[in-house]
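Our working data are protein records whose layout never changes between entries. The record below serves as our worked example for the rest of this section:
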Amino acid sequence: MPYTLTQFKSKVSEIVQDDAAKLTSTERDGFIQEAMKIYSKHRPRDVVREFAGNGTYDYAFITYLKSWVKDFSTLLKVEYPADERDPEYVDEDDFTIVTKAAGQYLRFLADTPPATETIRVIYTALHLLIDAVVTISIATPAVIGYVAHGLNLGDAIKFATTGALPTGITAGAIYYIIADGLTANAFEISATPGGAAINTSGTQSGTHTLGFSTIPAIDEDAVANLAASLCSGALASAYAQASDSTITADSVDHKSKSQEYASRARIQKQNYLNHIGLKEGDVAPASVIKDFDIGYPDGTDRLTHPRRSR
């Protein structure tokens, strides 16, 4: 069961065992977000985004690829037109990323998708672990009014509120985003990935806490160990700096504590690396190159996306 951010904080604190409370909650939370960035480099989050063409060749990331992070994200596949029986992947020479004053854009170099056709983009993004207090209106079956939610198809969410929710929605239960972009900042939810939308009885508006995490359940404990290793390393440094006490016994105690937390940090980090399948010092690839120049088995070109002479 995916953790909410609050549950993740508790898990990290249990691993660290900072009984003297030398590490502030703000510092711990900062290390958790740092661990999320490190984990994202090792196992990026794949985001699938679908949208209709608009009769132009430029599509703003801020509108269509909201989770894109400059200098981190990578375009994996551009499928157009989407949902053909034999998938049509745009050749990597037929699209590019351009930067304008308004931000980055996906530019089609050989196509101008009309509104009657769908574009499907798969790209990498940072993982998210957030508890957000939002004002929402829950109708049948859409959840609307969550401004700038930044969620994507397949993301897991929880309603962490203990307040009144409509029949069909349970506080603390896991739901999955199955439709996005119904209206501005709207999405539908299901109890199972790709399942049927939940039909609620009545409408319940108000302020609720919405928790969501993109960390796969199988990786949660490993990422918690990574965050704990950062916390333990900070505690080791803190005790080392305090070991110059004029009281000998106190100085020895601080040195012992420093060594203890340094040892814990190594073990916690190794637990993470073992789970991810990395060795100390391994570096994730900076980019991935994929060949989408796919032709028919007999070697002829596709009708709608022929290969250009090279």
Q: What stands out?
A: The radius of gyration is 24 Å. The first strand starts at residue 45 and ends at 52. The CA atoms of residues 30 and 107 lie 36 Å apart. Confidence is low (pLDDT under 50) at residues 286-298.
